[in-house]
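Tutorial handout. Part one gives the primary structure; part two gives the three-dimensional structure as tokens.
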Amino acid sequence: MTTEIQRAFVIQPGVIRLTPDELPSPAPDEVLLRTTKTLISPGTERAIMLNLPGLAVQYPKSVGYSHVGEIVQVGADVRSLKIGDRVASKSRHASHALVKEALCHQLPPKLDDEHATFFQLLATSLQAVRKTRLELGEAAAVLGAGLVGQLALQVLRLAGAMPAVAIDNHQGRLNLAHELGADEIASAAKAAEDSIATGALADSFQVVVEATGNPAALQTACDITAFGGRIALLGSSRGATESFDFYKRVHKKGITLIGAHIDTAARLSSAPGWWTMRDEQRTALQLLHNGRVKVAPLISHRFHWGEIGAAYDLLTEWNLDALGIMIDWF
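Part two.
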């Protein structure tokens, strides 16, 4: 028995379409989900949509990895989940998904579906902050107050950063960061001025999370990092950083650069500072459930699945007022 579905594909750069497809019945270790909500990851999905540098995309390309759905069918060997359970997974933007039982996270009863879709981006932010080994009382900054930067800022506060500072050029994003708990907000343009060496933000932070994905931002990140500080490269840079003086900016300051791409998570078991992605995802869902990370203010747009083209138009236009773009599939 098969299930007719709708699946989103970037057909070619700049063009997204909903395509009919069919899914078979679940394998013994799989569950079939009817999607309720998916969340667009602005940085990654914009890069795929526009074929930005740093990717090797073969089109058509399915997109998305922040998915919540309800189980409508289970495989013969599934034991921990049942029909009717709500689960989060890294499934694509589609009306239904087949997922292995081991890759699903059952949602707490009181966790809203929309809020739960943030679990993967929050897990991504968690692993980046964890790798910095932030200590209670250290000053920390997030460079870039987009969606993942807003989440990283809240994680830094939870981890004990004092102060936790948001740096961006968009005043609306800075205001939101302040609403979500930033101790201070600052303009990225001012932080990047040639006078940074004597500026207010120079050498200020033991920990910096670079969340812009802008190749040039690494220079600013180094300038505001204190001697012996750590920089987590959370944003996926699309292109090369030009004319970068490693001797002056990194070597002489004793800075540690930390590659914090999601693929750098531990594979087999968690250890201090280096957790598996499943453990990070589980922690993210607990933080969301307990209200320790706020995501409701981050939802800027909602679209019905039939309007997914309009949702992606926000990415191609790089609308800076767009943060959490939610797709409703129910």
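Part three, for discussion. The chain has a mean pLDDT of 93. DSSP finds ten helices and 16 strands in the chain.
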